[in-house]
Each structure stands twice: as C-alpha cells, then as structure tokens.
UniProtKB/TrEMBL annotation:
Residues 53-163 form the GCVT N-terminal domain. PANTHER family: TRANSFERASE CAF17, MITOCHONDRIAL-RELATED. SUPFAM superfamilies: Folate-binding domain. Residues 1-12 have a biased composition (Basic and acidic residues). GO terms for biological process: iron-sulfur cluster assembly. This is Folate-binding protein. Keywords: Transit peptide. Residues 19-33 have a biased composition (Low complexity). InterPro entries: GCVT_N (IPR006222), TrmE/GcvT-like (IPR027266), YgfZ/GCV_T_CS (IPR017703), YgfZ/GcvT (IPR045179). Residues 1-33, 380-400 are annotated as: Disordered.
C-alpha cells in the first residue's frame, strides 16, 4: 500500500538536501578535536554549539566570543547607480546612504508581503548586502530590475564569509566590512509598532533590544583560512539565536508566505515611510495610515518545569470564545541562560494580551503553557488629519 504522505516527505527531504548542498562550509579552520555540533539544511555547515550553549551565551555577552555564520549569503553591488536603483525598488531610503552606515531593506511583493531581506552597508564604492531569506529569489528579482542602470550584482559568498559578535569583533580578524545592527533604534522616516515605544521617535527605555548590539563582519575566506577557531572564544548559532529572541529581534524564522512588515515591528529599521514608490508601498501605507496588521509578534515565556519544549513551528493554542483554538505559530524557541525557555510567536492581532498560551507536544506528552509579553501593539492609533465631509456637495446617505 502506498503511503499517501510519502511524496510530501520525499519533497521535504529533497528540499533539505538542496539547502545543505547550497550551504557553504566555514573557512574558519578548526582542529580535528573540535566539539562543534553542526545544524541541518541551510545550517549544515554552521556550528549550533560547542557543547555548552548557555555558557556560550554568556561568552557572547561578556567575553567577546564570536559566532560562525557560514550560512549567510553575501552580495556585492557596484556601479554608480547602486544606491538610487536599490532605493527605487525596496523599502528603505538608500539614495543618501553614507559610507559605513548600516541599515536594512526589504523586498516586498505587490501586496506588501515580505519576499527578501537585505542587511546593507556601503563603503563609498560598493554596497555590501547580507542575505538569509530566499536569497536566490531575491537575486533573480534584483537582476531583472537592473534594466539600463549602472549596477553590477555579484554573489560573493564563495569569496567572503560572515562572522558575528556583540558590540565589536576581535581586532585580529581582518574585517572587510562591518554591519552594525540598527535594531531597535527607530530610523528617520520610520515608525515603531512596539507597545513599549508606540508613538515615540526613539526606542523606549524598556525595550530589551537596547541591551544587545549585534555586529556582523564580512571577511575574506582566504584570510579566515589563515586563522584558527582556537585563537578565539567561540559561541554557536544557538547562543546567537537565544540573544536575538530575548532582544525581541525578528529573524527569518518569523517570516512566512503572508508576513507583513507591521506584524513584526520591522518598520523601525527596514522601512522609510516618506520615500518614493516601490513595489508593495501601497499596502504598507494602507496598513500604517488606515488599518491594523492582521497578526502581531509576541514574546513568550515558556514553562520549563517539564524539561520538554515545543519546537519552532508549533501551533499556538489559546482559549477564545470559551473554546481552545489555534491563534498562531511559535516561530523561534531557545533556552536562555537567564530567562529560561523563551520564544517568539506570531499570533492573531485580536488575541487578548492576557490570554495564556499552550503548545501541544503530541502523543502522550503534557502540554507546555506559556505567558505572552506584548511586542507589537494590538491596536495603533492613526494620527491623520482627514478633511471633514462637505454635506453641501456630498449627498451620500443624506436621508438616513
């Protein structure tokens, strides 16, 4: 008898193999005795941890540890029109981007859904872009949009590699270009959707992202081959992710086929609301000026008493109208060295901010419960000075 799910499983396996094949091995040399535990799929060559994930988080925070980010793709855009051209087709204002200033921008579909995500820094002659989300699709779109502009786009992931850290990378690493995460500061022309600083022009004092300054260095692989992991304090990608989640920093895990920028509070660093037209701009403006995002990002404190945690992708359940219903998806999960089990989830906007969340682990395992902490506000007020209706000329519904 044929398993009806066999084709689906084969497809998932093929996708995982394709991702692993596209993933590039790290050029940071390691001794044969390395304790690095590698991931799967796109993370097949990225060390998740070196045996002590919690200690590695503290090492990142306090001891200048570095993180091997071998899975990140690196694009190099050159040509006189590189900034004005990318400014015209993505969400961020880039035509006046100064050398050395780090930012990020999004590629949207016509309905405002996120398709690509680039971390950017320009050196005065070249625009460097770090990509982790649907890079091949993003490259295809960018190349189709060049037309007659003076822009050359190269995927230089075979020549360069990313290394991450907090605050600064060791001086001994020969960094070609450094990207400093603008999160959680609110950029000029941008806006916050987070409850803690809603309506403010700067990040609120209580925003946890202010405690964590991520940096990513772009380094030539030839230079990395001449170094050894033994020369540095190393932390795995799991530690990087745990600190990202604690900082309320959305990542690629939070993005699915229907993600909008407002749902994830990405306007604060990725979108300029007063720049020229780009694909998806109308949808962004409509939600920002007139509507509410249909979903919202929340931070989740998970119950760790059972020592079993839900995995990323788990369905979020909550009591709605006297019945337990699906209200979203757990997108990222980690064990934090101070906070314990934590996660980020994307839930329905109208879910009560006080609702207790639960996660079904399947089989005979007890459910794990979680308490949500609001990140994206359930309701944003719109500050619009709309013209009043002139009833002398507007005859609609006059007889009602």
């Amino acid at each position: 008898m044929v398993d009806p799910d066999s084709n689906a499983h084969d497809g998932e396996a093929d996708a995982a193999e394709t991702q692993a094949a596209q993933s590039r091995p790290s050029s940071l040399s390691r001794p044969l005795s390395s304790t690095a535990v590698l991931g799967e799929g796109e993370l097949a060559h990225t060390p998740l941890h070196y045996g002590s994930p919690l200690r590695e988080q503290r090492a990142l925070l306090e001891k200048g540890a570095i993180v091997d980010l071998a899975h990140l793709r690196i694009l190099r855009l050159s040509g006189a029109d590189r900034l004005t051209w990318l400014n015209s087709i993505t969400t961020q204002k880039l035509d006046t981007l100064a050398p050395g200033v780090a930012t990020e921008t999004l590629v949207l579909d016509p309905n405002g859904r996120i398709e690509g995500w680039l971390k950017l820094v320009d050196d005065g002659e070249t625009l460097w872009a770090i990509s982790e989300l649907r890079t091949d699709d993003t490259l295809e779109f960018l190349r189709k949009m060049v037309f007659m502009m003076r822009v050359t786009i190269e995927d230089v992931s075979d020549e360069f590699q990313c290394i991450g850290a907090l605050v600064a990378l060791p001086d001994s690493l020969p960094v070609t270009q450094l990207w400093t995460d603008p999160w959680p500061h609110i950029g000029t022309g941008s806006a916050s959707y987070a409850q803690v600083d809603l309506g403010l022009g700067v990040a609120g004092e209580d925003h946890p992202g202010l405690e964590t300054q991520f940096v990513i260095g772009i380094i030539a692989r030839a230079d990395l081959r001449a170094t050894s992991a033994n020369d540095f304090t190393m932390a795995g990608f799991d530690a990087w992710e745990a600190l990202r989640i604690a900082a309320w920093r959305p990542g690629v895990n939070e993005i699915d086929h229907k993600s909008l920028v407002g749902e994830l509070d990405l306007l604060r660093t990725s979108v300029h609301l007063a720049k020229g037209c780009y694909r998806g701009q109308e949808a962004v403006a409509r939600v920002h000026n007139l509507g509410q995002p249909p979903r919202r990002l929340v931070f989740v404190h998970l119950d760790g008493s059972g020592h079993i945690q839900p995995e990323a992708g788990a369905e979020v359940l909550a009591e709605v109208r006297a019945a337990e219903r699906s209200v979203g998806q757990l997108s990222s999960v980690a064990l934090h060295w101070e906070l314990g089990p934590i996660g980020l989830a994307v839930v329905k906007r109208n879910l009560s901010a006080e609702a207790q969340l639960s996660f079904d682990l399947g089989e005979d395992a007890a459910r794990v419960v979680g308490a949500q902490e609001t990140i994206v506000a359930p309701v944003r007020e719109h500050d619009l000075d709309l013209p009043s209706r002139n009833r002398d000329v507007d005859m609609r519904n006059q007889n009602r």
